[in-house]
Structures are given as C-alpha cells and as structure tokens.
From TrEMBL:
The lineage of its organism: Bacteria, Bacillati, Bacillota, Bacilli, Bacillales. It comes from the Bacteria. One of its GO terms (molecular function) is hydrolase activity. Residues 185-197 have a biased composition (Basic residues). InterPro entries: DEAD_box_RNA_helicase (IPR050079), Helicase_C-like (IPR001650), P-loop_NTPase (IPR027417). This is ATP-dependent RNA helicase. Residues 153-223 are annotated as: Disordered.
C-alpha cells in the first residue's frame, strides 16, 4: 500500500505476490531469479511501461539458464540486452557522485547552531580540505559495512518446472519400470551361469590369420 501510494520507493516481493500486485508507474523491476514460466515473467515485468510509459526490467541469470532466456525472448518477440556486472571502481564512482549531490542539497539547508560550533572547532584543528575529504570518505564507504545475505536460488534447469529437481523419477513409476518389491534384482530368464573367466591375451592369434590382435588406438578412430 505504501509503495502504491508513493510513500516508499522500493518494494521487495515474492514470486507469489508478483501476480497480485496492481501498481502502475513502476520504473524498474529486478528479477532475482527467473520465473517458472514465461507467463509469470510477463506478469512481473508488466508492472513497468503501463499506460504508454517506459520501464526497465533487469533479470539476474545463471549461465546455464540462457536457454530459458531465449524461450522468454521468443514468447515475447523481443530481445534482451546483456549487461555485465559493474566493476568496483564504477560502483565507487557512482557512490561519490551520489554523495556530492547529497552534500549540495545539505548545503542549501540551515544547520543547527551546535553543529556549527563543532564545525568551527574542527576547522581550527584540521585543514579544511583534509577535514571534508575524511567526512566524504566515511560517507562513501559506509555501505561497505552493511552485510547483505542473499539466499542462493538454484538455476531453473536444475530446479525443474515444478520446483523439483529436473531429471528425477519416481522409483515406483509405472512408465515401463517394474514395481520394486525388495526381492532379487535379477529379471526372469537371467542365467546364473558364471561367465568365462578366460583372460584376454593380446598375443592370441585371431581365427582369420596369424597376425596378433591389438587394441584400437585414437588414430584408428580418426580413419
């Protein structure tokens, strides 16, 4: 409700909540993981660009999920642009630009008298440039101290369409598999006769000639 009424700027929603949100004017949608189907993806990014407005949808993907990205592109008839993660220097530069803009806004406001007194004391003790630089450095590096723990999300191809590991099968499935009854694993007609234990001799002569038999090499496979 607060997000819809513009009281907050950022909303973190679950995959279930994505379908029930009826909010217009969203500028950005960030998908931490890929939805289970293309329809859900369309619902998610549909929060942007409503009523003729423009919006940006960013999706974090695992390299093995690129095939599913292609399916989404084909279903929506639009291609996505690949973005590389920002370098640390670029992140710091963005923070510095943001801090500079904030300081300019702070300078337009009236400061409290007690803060002016502290400022005067600091300026009498330190060089003004060094003092401002130290304060700005603390502001820029403040976000580095915040630890963000993100829950790892399995890639879609491993997670499966229904949230189950793909490729797994029910052992009691009737799709051509006999029911496991805990008895002998040997099927009907299985011979209990021991196989020949005759050791293979490379020097043994073949039945068609006198040349000794030898194993095939990689060069033989290339012929």
């Amino acid at each position: 409700k607060k997000f819809k009424n513009d009281q907050i700027n950022i909303l973190v929603a679950t995959d279930v909540a994505a379908r029930g949100l009826d909010i217009s004017g969203v500028s950005h949608v960030y998908n931490f993981d890929i939805p289970q189907d293309t329809e859900s993806y369309t619902h998610r990014i549909g929060r942007t660009g409503r009523a003729g407005k423009e919006g940006i949808a960013v999706t974090f993907v695992n390299p093995i999920e690129m095939d599913y990205i292609r399916q989404i592109e084909d279903a929506n008839g639009r291609k996505m642009s690949a973005l590389r993660p920002p370098h640390r220097k670029e992140v710091l530069q963005a923070r510095e630009d943001d801090i500079k803009e904030k300081v300019e806004n702070w300078m337009s406001k009236e400061s409290e008298s007690r803060l002016k007194r502290i400022s005067t004391e600091l300026l009498n003790e330190y060089n003004d440039v060094d003092l401002v630089a130290a304060l700005l450095q603390e502001l820029v590096e403040a976000n580095d101290e915040v630890e963000v723990q993100l829950t790892f999300e399995k890639p879609l191809s491993r997670k499966g369409r229904n949230g189950k590991p793909s490729g797994s099968r029910n052992r009691n499935s009737k799709r051509g598999n006999p029911k496991f009854d805990g008895k002998s694993k040997r099927s009907k007609g299985y011979s209990n006769k021991k196989k020949s234990t005759k050791k293979f001799d490379r020097k043994e002569k073949s039945s068609g000639g006198s040349r000794p038999m030898k194993g095939r090499t990689f060069a033989d496979h290339q012929k």
